[in-house]
Amino acid sequence: AIPEPTLKRLPYYYKFIQGQREARRDFVSCTTLAEALGLNPIQVRKDLQATGAVGRPKVGYHVETTLDAIEECLGYHNTQDIFLVGAGHLGQALLAYPGFAEIGFNLVAAFDADPAKVGREVAGKPILEASRLSDLVRRMHIQIAILAVPAAAAQMVTDTLVRAGIRAIWNFTPTRLAVPREVLVQDENLLASLSVLSKQLENSRVK
Amino acid sequence: AIPEPTLKRLPYYYKFIQGQREARRDFVSCTTLAEALGLNPIQVRKDLQATGAVGRPKVGYHVETTLDAIEECLGYHNTQDIFLVGAGHLGQALLAYPGFAEIGFNLVAAFDADPAKVGREVAGKPILEASRLSDLVRRMHIQIAILAVPAAAAQMVTDTLVRAGIRAIWNFTPTRLAVPREVLVQDENLLASLSVLSKQLENSRVK
Ligand SMILES: NC(=O)c1ccc[n+]([C@@H]2O[C@H](COP(=O)([O-])OP(=O)(O)OC[C@H]3O[C@@H](n4cnc5c(N)ncnc54)[C@H](O)[C@@H]3O)[C@@H](O)[C@H]2O)c1
Ligand SMILES: NC(=O)c1ccc[n+]([C@@H]2O[C@H](COP(=O)([O-])OP(=O)(O)OC[C@H]3O[C@@H](n4cnc5c(N)ncnc54)[C@H](O)[C@@H]3O)[C@@H](O)[C@H]2O)c1
């Protein structure tokens, strides 16, 4: 399996190499990539090799086949249907974002407990009644759910998702979710992230 | 300076210990914290010690003073004015979120290039004309800006912020920003994060 730090860098290579394709270039070198992204060229070479892409000495990596290798690696080729739970401020921003479809994720529907939201649509996606979540996860074999409910509802909704067979949760709530070992959780704690940035800023000033 | 992995865990300790305060408990042990958060008690002890909090053998950490130590450490005591650039779907969700104020960040105003948005308010915060950004960053000595503009505008807005004296950028765009060494950037690449989760799910199935 590909190490996580490499996986996190691949979308940046992908975006840059797409720019090379638009500029009608056929090859791109590790040095060009490294300079553009402020990375070490040896790290770039290692990352690209991890995707199976092959570079030619003095010529570089073929733009089309490298884009293909990265797409394969990040699963951009297979579309995944995913659900969103909690169609509030953050949930609606995620529903309206075209970027997820571009990388193979089809945000099929949102679920909410607020009757005033149920029955509406955001960016063409329906907001359904929260009570239908469990049945639809099961029937549609949904693997990934995005959690954007208030912290107080987070664990309860998680338990419903896990019972219905969810395999991974992308968690935007500040709550640490208790899940069985076979369920993956990726926390996106935005408050922690801002605090860390601010603290690093404070540390950098002290020097 | 406190290591970043520790800083990222502190908000979870903070939230759990707040719950202890609401349950009128005076002390909390590392074991209780570790069990609640699925962490190793030795790691918890090391993290709390890094904040300056002192535990008493067999009794644990005093709830009030430990909350205070974590607040001090994460800078929750000093309010920091920050700007948001790009009042679109994501920007408006961030403006409407009360969580930032709770940890000492005052999202003062948003800036946008779309005349239809300028002059409106979201959650009581004004959306101002993008051309005023540079002057107001300078006059209000703003240190941190949140970037939520389209990828195509990201570098241009960043250059404006840097010239005006910004010290740190919280970047939600998928663009890698080129900034001078003394400016901090924290990337929040949500697309990469979802791709990584999906790839890890794929890896876990193969086993
Ligand atoms: N908005 C942000 O910028 C932001 C930033 C960081 C973290 N978060 C976190 O993301 C989550 C959502 O934040 P928000 O600002 O969108 O909040 P919000 O209150 O605007 O939206 C929450 C939505 O969840 C729905 N909901 C509540 N209980 C539910 C349940 N049991 N089942 C289904 N839906 C339910 C509500 O009806 C509401 O529509 C919160 O946990 C918050 O801490 C948000
Ligand atoms: N919405 C999401 O869930 C989401 C998820 C991941 C990443 N992102 C990233 O966050 C950014 C914002 O996404 P969004 O969905 O809110 O887009 P959006 O189009 O809804 O909002 C962008 C806003 O930026 C404004 N803008 C454009 N150029 C500007 C400039 N030069 N100065 C000031 N304002 C300017 C636009 O008028 C608009 O209001 C994008 O880079 C996107 O890739 C968004």
List keywords for this structure.
homodimer, 207 residues, alpha/beta, Rossmann fold, 2 domains, 7-stranded mixed sheet, 3-stranded antiparallel sheet, 47% helix, globular, binds nicotinamide-adenine-dinucleotide
Low-confidence stretches of chain A: none
Integer average pLDDT of chain A: 93
SSE order of chain A, one letter for each helix or strand: HEHHEEHEHHEEEHEHEEH
- The N- to C-terminal Cα distance of chain A equals 39 Å
Q: What's the CATH topology name of the largest domain in chain A?
A: Rossmann fold
What small molecules does the structure contain?
nicotinamide-adenine-dinucleotide
Chain oligomer state? homodimer
Largest sheet of chain A: 7 strands, mixed
Q: Please state the structural category of chain A.
A: alpha/beta
Shape of chain A: globular
Number of domains of chain A: 2
- The DSSP helix count of chain A reads 9
Which pair has the most extensive contact? A-B, 59 and 58 residues
Radius of gyration of chain A: 20 Å
In CATH terms, the superfamily of the largest domain in chain A is NAD(P)-binding Rossmann-like Domain
Query: Which strand order spans the largest sheet of chain A, edge to edge or round the barrel?
Result: 6-7-5-4-8-9-10
Strand tally of chain A: 10
> Briefly, what CATH class of the largest domain in chain A?
Alpha Beta
Helix content of chain A: 40-55%
